[in-house]
Amino acid sequence: MGQTLTIKTIPYSIKIADSFFTRFKGLMFRKDPLMTEGLWIIPCNSIHMCFMHFAIDAVFLNKEGRIVKIIEGIKPWQFVKPIKNAYSVIELPIGTIRWLGLKLGEVIKL
């Protein structure tokens, strides 16, 4: 019997950071915390929270959009080491992972 494929959507406006500058800048220096939006950084397999003013949730995806790592409540000045098999990351408002019940292996559709 095969594994059930669960597809989740994120009910926020998601901006894409896919150029050198937008990936480098990310959410640095932003004063207001994320509320109903997120940032999808492509490609990306690790993040840092330098010059951040608020905590976030992070969902790392492989090339197929499958969740390979979830990290809740990353605080300013913390670092996330490279995640094996991660191709991109979605940075979301703190509490989103729990609110949406996101789990490893689920596919995110944006």
UniProtKB/TrEMBL annotation:
What protein name does the entry list?
A: DUF192 domain-containing protein
**What's the domain of life for this entry?**
Bacteria
In terms of InterPro entries, this protein maps to: DUF192, Saro_0823-like_sf
